[in-house]
Amino acid sequence: MAKRMDIKTFAKELGVSTATVSRAFGSAGRISEKTREKILKAADELGYYANYNASNLGSKKSGSICFFYPEIYTEEPDYFVSEVILGINRNLDHRQVFKVTPFDENDNRILNSCKQQILDGRVSGAIILSGTKGANILASLAEKVKIPYVIIGRNPKFTTNTVDYDNEHGAFLAGKLLKRLGRKKVAYISGHLDKLKKRGFAKGFGIEMSELITVRGGAGFRYGIQAMETLRKKYPDVDGVLCANDNLAIGLINHAQKIGVSIPKDLSVVGFDDIAFSKFCNPSLSTISLNLKELGSAAVRLLEKQMSGRDKSTPAKCENEFIQCELIIREST
Amino acid sequence: MAKRMDIKTFAKELGVSTATVSRAFGSAGRISEKTREKILKAADELGYYANYNASNLGSKKSGSICFFYPEIYTEEPDYFVSEVILGINRNLDHRQVFKVTPFDENDNRILNSCKQQILDGRVSGAIILSGTKGANILASLAEKVKIPYVIIGRNPKFTTNTVDYDNEHGAFLAGKLLKRLGRKKVAYISGHLDKLKKRGFAKGFGIEMSELITVRGGAGFRYGIQAMETLRKKYPDVDGVLCANDNLAIGLINHAQKIGVSIPKDLSVVGFDDIAFSKFCNPSLSTISLNLKELGSAAVRLLEKQMSGRDKSTPAKCENEFIQCELIIREST
DNA sequence: TTGTAAGCGTTATCAT
DNA sequence: ATGATAACGCTTACAA
Prior knowledge:
The structure is a homodimer. Chain A is of the alpha/beta class. In chain A, the strands form 2 sheets. Chain A has a 6-stranded parallel β-sheet, with helices on both faces. In chain A, helix 1 crosses helix 2, helix 5 packs across helix 12 and helix 6 packs parallel to helix 7. In chain A, 44% of the residues lie in helices and 17% in strands. Chain A folds into 3 domains: 47 residues, 434 Repressor (Amino-terminal Domain), CATH 1.10.260.40; 147 residues, Rossmann fold; 123 residues, Rossmann fold (3-Layer(aba) Sandwich). At the A-B interface, helix 4, helix 5, strand 2, helix 6 and helix 11 of A face helix 4, helix 5, strand 2, helix 6 and helix 11 of B. Chain B binds a DNA duplex through helix 2 and helix 4.
């Protein structure tokens, strides 16, 4: 890094003290509007900026807002996450620095690096996408070091500061829909957070969970293709499916069309998440909308509530936000 | 933040000096393997971590690798960017902290915040997605403060440390394809970085640029729908299009099908970028592949070359990387 | 409202 | 190989 002007030489240049300069940039007052303006103007001209690390060290304040999420897609971008990020970004005060950090469940080096970020003061607020062990570890850590954090997704270990949505109810709606459409035999294509989805789906369709056919899916289009293959070979009489996520559904539909299975005539397909693409596939995808962007927005609201209503030692505990699932009926059912 | 153990008390606890503790975590040697191990073990047990800001301040080293990109999609996630990020993430040494920072061309507050991040030492290496004024500003800044940076995309103002790809040639391939398919009249649906694409497209199809019909598109599905409307109303005889990006193409195809235009019979559609989804639409999308992930990987390679082969005051100038465009023929042509 | 100076928790320089 | 200590560049009592 190039050497930059420091506060001392800048202050000397202006004939004021370093304290005054510092105050000009802060929001604590204790400075006349006139000198503040003078200093800000001079800073702009002379190119003075406070050193970030020094500033944080001095004030004992720290870092940026950080979004931690498990990286489960490796070949394709995770559209779910992309849209949540969109929601976060749009609602975050843009003076806040926002950092996006994927972590790999199975790579301890990466997970440790995330842990350390929380521990060493780089993160002043964390948004954590739930659903994996790693997420739990990070959330516990945030709790322990008492930084504001919010968890997206239900998590039995954390009952406060979460943004929740009801996978079970969403899947229930899907099951009910397929029943109403007169489908005879349904299957669930698994992926992520399957337990609740299966339960809801079976209930909605009016069968026991034990009767529900489950086909292994995954995360990403290709798993949808595989699942469709399995379906054809092992369960040719299935005429309705719920997929654990939209990508899976899109891959499945794609392959169905290739092998001459007509959607929705032969097979009704319901996705999960409602990513932006779902509206633009052909056939467009019926799906359970999780209101992804709203999920991100709510997380930010919760985080900011904690950061503001806060005695300096402990972040406030906030009530949870709840995001309603919706059934979006399009052409694939 | 909760108060944590600092290096002094930790060192005292162990009966060593703070310097020794510091060395145990660093890589500069000057410490016996035995004491290092002892210290690392104790740190783990007692929960000691170096404070990030203090550490950076002391060493005059700074921050993280940062990816700056202009946020042009607001309603939908930017899939182009998502895939580039994937490429970056996969190739970055995971000890590096990676920060993703969208900026808004038109919001000076955000742009300033980015500038400040570069200036105040938070960023130790920048990857900048080119194509906008803001990108130029940030790149100039990086150049000025002498941090390693790489620019993705051609930029006449920066002739070194760039990862380049040839939009013009890609579009040329698209034009040639449509010609070969016997299409009579083509149009270009605009979006981003249009000039070179138009030139290449016209050349490939064998017409003058002035003869090329251009329909206003944008970024995002919805603009594809609009463009298809325009096409129908104003240019019903167009039988082949190149869209500036895949989203545009997908939206266009979607609407075409709704209004009874058969793809590719009535209209051949070529996209640009080759996002993951293009393979899974129906019809699947013929497109110019920019090898998005490879773009990210190359950027990291270049950045690391600068950071390693570096005398301490100035990052090395590195040769550019060049990523080949490819024509991917699928069902939409 | 402003200045002085004591931290903030490291790293790096010199000794030893 | 280790220890003492002066930076590092800022913030914030405390004084004026």
